[in-house]
Write a structure and sequence with these properties.
Elements lengths: L12 E2 L4 H4 L8 E2 L2 H7 L5 E4 L6 H10 L3 E5 L6 H14 L3 E4 L6 H12 L5 E9 L22 H4 L2 H11 L2 E9 L12 E8 L4 E7 L8 E8 L2 E6 L5 E7 L26 H12 L9 H16 L1
Parallel strand pairs: 1-2, 3-4, 4-5, 6-9
Antiparallel strand pairs: 6-10, 7-8, 8-9, 10-11, 11-12
Helix pairs in contact: 3-4, 4-9, 5-7, 7-9
Length: 314
């Protein structure tokens, strides 16, 4: 995405894997085994993009901020609120931006429902149900990989479903009175944590909600959906990545025609994620050129981590 952008340039790549296995020769840039090796090279850059295992995000973000660089961090921002707070504090201290990758905010249904909720046309929000049912099996959790480990993965809500918790927070704000039930149906030999859960809560602003999730779905992803029951109507967004409007019936409202949604990234037999990462790069460049405000800032990234931490600790 960076390579394709007319206003961006890749100056280096950092990965411990043998460059021959990465298929990155076409970028024709220096490749380093570690962030420390890159730093010692003296190459100048404006932004460091962190796309490493979850458990490394905070440590590497803090290193980048110490170098006084802007940072792009793949979700989740960190695995603890305490580490996220360190990132926020250091970013403010060195006057640098931290961009949290929550690309699902850019899908046409997400933009549409955000505008609808903020317009007030739905009235009071009574109930929100978030359902996330995916397949993640031995094709994903391979022996020796970081996926599935407590230290580097963190848990199902961090790696698979933090995008949808972010959308819920983006739309309706913080939650309270959390109650949970977790299960490990068929991942006992694959992961250090649960594969399924029921979560109920109240929204601080009013209304109640639930999150039902599982990665124990057989063979392929089933859905990621959000159903909203409100004073003046009901809405459901569904599809694998919450990328389709499946129902809209709202008082005195005609739904507009939405732009096409990008197809999902295909990471192999188990599939991948919503493909909107180009919008993240657009936003980084626009913000650093004073043309736009940041879409997902460090405080929002920290809030998602804090909500997930509270769900797990409840």
């Amino acid at each position: 995405m960076v390579h394709r952008h007319p206003e961006a340039e890749i100056v280096a790549l950092i990965d411990p894997i043998d460059p021959k296995e990465l298929n990155i020769e076409q970028y024709n840039v220096p490749i380093f085994k570690s962030l420390a090796d890159f730093v010692s090279s003296g190459i100048e850059t404006d932004v460091i993009s962190i796309c490493t295992p979850n458990g490394l995000h905070s440590e590497q973000a803090l290193m980048a901020l110490e170098l006084k660089k802007h940072v792009v961090i793949e979700k989740p921002m960190s695995l603890t609120k305490a580490d996220a707070e360190k990132i926020v504090f250091n970013a403010l201290h060195v006057h640098k931006q931290v961009f949290c990758v929550m690309q699902n905010r850019y899908s046409p249904p997400s933009i549409w429902i955000k505008n609808l909720v903020e317009s007030g046309k739905l009235g009071n929000i009574y109930m929100v149900q978030l359902n996330c049912y995916w397949n993640r099996d031995e094709r994903y959790y391979k022996p020796g990989n970081w996926h599935g480990t407590r230290e580097l993965d963190g848990g199902t809500l961090f790696t698979q479903f933090s995008h949808f918790i972010d959308i819920m927070y983006w739309l309706f704000g913080d939650i309270a009175n959390i109650q949970t039930k977790f299960a490990d149906n068929n991942h006992k030999d694959l992961t250090d944590f649960e594969d399924s859960g029921f979560v109920t809560f109240d929204f601080v602003k009013g209304g109640m909600g639930s999150l039902n999730y599982s990665t124990s779905v057989w063979d392929k992803n089933l859905e990621s959906s959000m159903t909203i029951i409100a004073e003046n109507g009901s809405v459901k967004i569904g599809g694998q990545y919450m990328d389709k409007v499946e129902y809209c019936h709202v008082k005195d409202y005609i739904m507009p025609e939405l732009a096409p949604t990008n197809p999902g990234n295909d990471y192999g037999t188990y599939k991948g994620s919503a493909q909107n990462h180009n919008f993240i790069i657009d936003n980084v460049i626009d913000v650093l050129n004073n043309r736009a405000s940041i879409t997902t800032n460090a405080l929002e990234g920290m809030k998602v981590v804090e909500i997930i931490e509270r769900i797990y600790s409840s």
